[in-house]
Write a structure and sequence with these properties.
Length: 441
């Protein structure tokens, strides 16, 4: 197989579907390109993604703007551990509690904007505005206000989506990244994103340390580090927070509602649970009650299983000059890029019974045929998604509040059966409109 096939598959966004078809036909080990394999085996998770697993390789270098500071995703070894320490503080249980008031404020704003809408609305687009505003609040102290404007007036969302497509393609030819990043439409997008980051950082620096947002922790405004982080590195990670935290969470919330509306009995159970935990006239904004939303939590996990936001994920690389590595009882030569795709793993009948069926109860009472260790929507190990718990809190609050405030149904002419086919995998995902009707309860 040539690199050209990988380029084309990444461009189309069909990598996750094609990958699964290959595994269905050839088994748990599939060669997907020169020096590149895909593995679908739960026993490979630790040896690929775990603490003693494989490092990141050229794939990630190609996704990085060569003229920009390196962000957390690209770093490896000690630099990654040092940067991750700042992120871990920003995503600790105490920090997440500090963020709840911001989640509640943006959730309430989302409801108010939806209440003012007439006719069918694209729920996925509104989730995008919500997550963009919220992550902007967290990373740079705000400033985007897509909810207020009712859209992406500055065009930033589309710039990020274009960059995601280009990055997915370039990752297959890392040697060409420096050349491709000089192409005008690519370099123009990168310069625009950098300017947004620098301008946002400047505003946040002027605001000072009055708010314990993500910037507060990434820039070590508490003074806990021996050496303060460089502002350019904080800006790089702030931009990463927006890219990684907007698309993934909005995609997940969109999928949750797609599956709930496609399975009315599940929607009814969620609504009953929400109405029990948050009685009438008590807005579903109190995160301390999220522990009572066990069925909604199960629905979120099931939606993440079927539609993981990073469907194929990024590969790890067997180090050169290492002599190779044994993965799931097979020898893999040095220099090989190894994918462990969540989409294919989550739909493998060896680990989940009736894997194509949306069945939230598998998370409440796991039965025979359920191996929940195969569930890796946020990756696994020391480089897993640091914002996974924040994303879950966002989803619990937003979904419970919308279910409490509205009776939601698919729009009259919306083709629900075709919607999953609109999902495109470019490491992060894009998707078509999820058109719904909203009726106040």
């Amino acid at each position: 197989m040539s690199k050209l096939s990988g380029l084309w598959v990444s461009w189309t966004g069909q990598q996750h579907r094609i990958n699964k078809k290959l595994h269905d036909k050839y088994g748990c080990f599939v060669r997907t390109g020169p020096n590149e394999i895909s593995v679908v085996d739960v026993s490979a998770i630790g040896s690929v993604l775990g603490a003693s697993g494989l490092p990141k390789g050229e794939y990630y270098e190609a996704r990085q703007d060569p003229s920009a500071p390196r962000n957390l995703v690209v770093l490896v070894g000690e630099p990654h551990a040092n940067r991750r320490r700042l992120w871990n503080r920003g995503m600790s249980s105490d920090s997440l509690k500090d963020y709840e008031i911001v989640i509640a404020k943006r959730s309430q704003q989302l409801v108010e904007k939806l209440e003012s809408e007439r006719g069918p609305v694209d729920l996925g687009a509104w989730f995008g505005y919500f997550t963009f505003d919220f992550m902007g609040d967290m990373a740079f102290g705000g400033g985007f206000e897509m909810l207020r404007d009712g859209g992406d007036k500055a065009g930033l969302w589309h710039v990020l989506e274009r960059f995601a497509v280009v990055a997915a393609v370039v990752s297959h030819i890392p040697w060409a990244s420096r050349i491709l990043h000089k192409i005008p439409f690519i370099s123009g997008d990168l310069q625009r994103l950098r300017k947004v980051g620098v301008d946002s950082a400047s505003s946040r620096l002027k605001a000072g340390a009055s708010t314990k947002d993500l910037w507060y922790h990434l820039s070590d405004e508490a003074g806990l580090e021996k050496e303060p982080p460089l502002v350019k590195d904080v800006v790089a990670d702030g931009a990463l927070a927006i890219l990684a935290g907007t698309d993934t969470t909005s995609a997940a919330m969109t999928s949750v509602f797609y599956f709930l509306l496609s399975n009315p009995e599940c929607y009814t159970r969620v609504q009953t649970e929400v109405d029990t935990v948050y009685p009438k006239d008590e807005d579903a904004l109190d995160a301390s009650r999220h522990g009572g939303l066990s069925y909604l939590n199960a629905c979120i996990s099931e939606a993440l299983r079927l539609h993981p936001p990073a469907a194929t994920g990024g590969p790890r690389q067997v180090p050169r000059h290492s002599g190779g590595k044994v993965i799931a009882d097979r020898f893999v030569p040095e220099g090989t890029q190894v994918y462990l795709p969540p989409y294919s793993l989550h739909r493998d009948a060896r680990y989940f019974s009736n894997p194509e069926v949306f069945r939230p109860d598998r998370w409440l009472v796991p039965g025979e045929g359920e191996d929940l260790s195969a569930f890796i929507p946020f990756s696994y190990g020391p480089a897993n998604c640091v914002g996974r718990n924040l994303a879950r809190r966002e989803m619990l609050m937003v979904v419970s509040l919308l279910v409490q405030k509205f009776k939601i149904s698919f729009a009259k002419d919306f083709d629900a059966g075709a919607w999953p086919d609109t999902i495109r995998d470019h490491f992060v995902s894009t998707r078509g409109p999820l058109m719904v009707e909203l009726e106040a309860r």
